[in-house]
Amino acid sequence: MEEQPILQLSSASIYQGNSLILSDVNIAVNRGEFVYLIGKTGTGKSSLLKTLYGDLTLREGEGQVVGFDLKKMDWKKVPYLRRNLGVVFQDFQLLTDRNVHDNLKFVLKATGWQEPKHMEDKIADVLDKVGLGTKGFKMPYELSGGEQQRVDIARAMLNSPKLILADEPTGNLDPETSDGIMQLLFRICREDGTAIVMATHDYIVLQKFPSRVLRTENGQVIDNAAINFA
Ligand SMILES: Nc1ncnc2c1ncn2[C@@H]1O[C@H](COP(=O)(O)OP(=O)(O)OP(=O)(O)O)[C@@H](O)[C@H]1O
Q1: GO CC annotation: what is one (predicted)?
Q2: End-to-end CA distance of the chain, in Å?
Q3: Which pLDDT value is given to residue 228?
Q4: How far, in Å, from the CA of 21 to the mean position of ligand 1?
Q5: Residue 229 belongs to a domain
Q6: Residues 128, 104: Cα–Cα separation, whole Å
């Protein structure tokens, strides 16, 4: 039996208010795939990601993400969707009044974790995975930009999602730090089998870490996998 894609949109139209941003979107991403989302500014990358994490409602077409039907999504179901996927932003703000460990613990509690030992193990595990195993006691302002981005990735991994959606995760970083983040994302994809969809403007990253590319252009999403293999 063929495995269901981790994410799929069929004949989908994406709106911001009354403006049609993308139409007839047909994409599927499989488990464990790494996919870039590129396109000129204002062409709808963030709108597409927002639809996938339930921030924009899917009004036309069909869609599912990690088994959730986007057409049937309402504000009550969004928290359940969010527990099953990780989201990484360019400028995610950590809570400034507590250290890294407590920032992560806050997210665990907010997503229903209760058992203290399980929480401690999970926090140690994700911090280890992002290379910050010894930095849990640090306050956010004591971290570099790259380290803060790693904490954000650790946060996205807390509920062991099968899919991570990342909106310009290297946007504010210098090339070397950005390479480190890309290596980390590819490792998570390879070792944990997590599918990753990453919006980016950074063509250097694309060249250095080649993978499948989706491109937003003229109100459409163009899939290089479909072009190459159709
Ligand atoms: N909250 C909003 N309300 C109305 N229109 C919006 C809203 N957010 C974005 N738009 C419009 O939707 C279009 C697509 O924006 P979007 O942010 O998805 O593009 P993008 O490709 O992610 O751009 P960038 O690369 O600059 O982040 C733009 O024309 C934008 O002005």
Answers
A1: plasma membrane
A2: 22
A3: 47
A4: 8
A5: no
A6: 13
Q: Which domain holds residue 207?
A: 7-222
Domain CATH code at residue 46? 3.40.50.300
Identify whether 60 is part of a domain.
yes
Q: Provide the domain count of the chain.
A: 1
Q: Ligand 1 pocket test: which of 13, 14, 15, 16 has the largest number of ligand atoms within 8 Å of its C-beta? A: 16
Any domain includes 228: no
What pLDDT score does 230 carry?
A: 38
CA-CA-CA-CA dihedral for 147, 124, 164, 72, to nearest 10: -130
pLDDT tens for residues 91-100? 778 899 999 9
Is 50 within the bounds of a domain? Answer: yes
Which residue has the least CA distance to atom 25 on ligand 1?
41
State yes or no: ipTM above 0.90.
yes
**pTM above threshold 0.90:** yes
| Phi and psi at residue 142, to the nearest 5° | -90, 0
